[in-house]
Each structure stands twice: as C-alpha cells, then as structure tokens.
Amino acid sequence: MSQFVVGLSGGIGSGKTTVSNMFAKLGVQIIDADVIARQVVEPDSLALGAITDKFGSQLLDQDGNLDRRKLRDIVFSQPEAKNWLNALLHPLIQQQMQQQTRQAKSIYCILSVPLLVENQSYKNVDTVLIVDVPENLQRSRSISRDAASETQINAIMASQATRQQRLEVADDVIDNSGDEEALLAQVYQLHQRYMRMAGAVLEQKNKPGD
To answer: Per-residue pLDDT tens for 1-41?
Structure first.
C-alpha cells in the first residue's frame, strides 16, 4: 500500500496526462479519475444503461460505446442533465478511486482528478500538485487537441475552478508553459521530494511502539 498520496490536477489543456505519464515512467502508480470514468460506463454496465435510458441510444457509437463528445454537448447545454449525470457517476468513480488508492504498491501514488478542487477531493490526499499554464494556452491547446470550438472550450473552462482557485490549494505547482525538457526536470525534482516524504511516513509508522 502506498504511504503517501499526491493529488494531481489542472484545468483543461494544462497537460495533466503528460505529467502523470512522466511520473508513471518513474515507477509511480497512477490512479486516474478520467480512466475510471470511462470504465464505469463500459458497454453493458449499469451506468451506461441508465444513461441511454435517460438520453437515448443515439449516444452510443456503432460498437456500443458511449460517445463522450455527444454526452458532453448535452451536459454543457442542460444544467439539469449535468446534475443528474454527476449524481449517477460520481459515487461510482469515488468508490473505484478509493479502492485503487488502497491497492497501490508504489511507495507513493498519484491520484489524478480533473475536479480535485471543485469536488474538494484535495482534502483526502496528503499533498496537492497543480499543473499550471496561462489560460490563453489552455484554450489554444484544448481547441487543437479536442477539435472543439472556442465556445465549447470556454464553457468547459467556465465550469471548472479558476486558475487562482487551483493555485490557492496547491502545495506544489508545475509550470507547463515551456518545453518537454523543462517539464521533465520539474517532475523528476518533485519525484525525489515525494520519495523522501513517503519514506518519512513509512519510517514513522515503523517506529517501535507506534
């Protein structure tokens, strides 16, 4: 079981996945809320059945998978639909995150949660790491990556915590406005620090009489 949990987050287009992949290559176990969110709506799952009952089978692609882009269009245009979906999925995702965190084997693990600030999940981790970029860079990267309109990306950004709100809860901040080499250097430096912090927790637990 991991001795130390790092909560990782950042706004859309900040590069959370790139950062978590770098930590993974260093042997750190990643619990990714986005991955879990896809798993809980796999074909034949109860959650996917509830979604198609609510919004119709047109949300499925030809292989029976959820078309997440179509669903995103619905929830960002209908606040009541977003509330319904959150009530359905968040408990399932939370349950899986907790289970995978308990089962993590690396000395520290990373819990990557896009809405770490919004749903106050940062209160359940040992330290908070925010991947930060200027908002104009968030916007341009997201539009390019997702082939989405600026209106759609602006709506997503408006629904998330502000850049300032994320930075206010951060214990550590990675600046991802530079190149890959600069990003990797920051990741490696933090990896060494988190190893020391996790080691200190383990040492304290193993003290005689504790």
So the answer is: 788 999 999 999 999 999 999 999 999 999 999 999 999 99
Q: Is the dihedral of CA 76, 79, 85, 87 positive or negative?
A: positive
| 98, 113: one domain | no
Of 15-24, 73-82, 102-111, the least confident:
73-82
Instruction: Say how many CA atoms lie within 13 Å of 9 toward its Cβ.
Output: 28
Strand, coil or helix: what is 85? helix
State which H helix or E strand residue 69 sits in.
helix 68-77
Distance CA 67, CA 48 (A): 11
Domain with 187 in it:
1-28+107-210
CA 145/CA 158 separation, integer angstroms? 18
Domain total for the chain?
Answer: 2
**Rounded Cα distance, 187 and 30, in Å:** 14
Residue 30, strand partner residues: 110
- CATH code of residue 148: 3.40.50.300
Please tell me the distance from the alpha carbon of residue 204 to that of residue 200, in angstroms, as a whole number.
6
Query: CA distances (Å), 195 to each of 58, 64, 96, 155, 167, in order?
Result: 47, 42, 25, 38, 23
d(CA 179, CA 24): 19
DSSP state of 12: T
In 2-62, where do the E strands start and end? 4-9, 29-32
pLDDT value of residue 202: 85
Indicate whether 13 and 74 sit together in one domain.
no
